[in-house]
Amino acid sequence: MVVDAVLYHTTMELMFAGRNTTGSALCWFFYLHASHFGFLAVSALPIGPLAS
């Protein structure tokens, strides 16, 4: 699927790009989680099967 490939490549790019890019991505991630309360419930769904 195209969306999966884009998400994969974006994630790899952020992980290997360096500390400034990773830090910036983490700041945006926590900002979006804090400002969109419904997003937390949706984003935790894929983690559920891994936790059990």
UniProtKB/TrEMBL annotation:
Keyword annotations: Membrane, Transmembrane, Transmembrane helix
Transmembrane segment boundaries: 28-51
Keyword Transmembrane helix: yes
InterPro entries found in the cross-reference section: Cyt_P450_sf (IPR036396)
MF-aspect GO terms: heme binding; iron ion binding; monooxygenase activity; oxidoreductase activity, acting on paired donors, with incorporation or reduction of molecular oxygen
Protein's name according to its UniProt entry: Uncharacterized protein
Species for this entry: Brachypodium distachyon (Purple false brome)
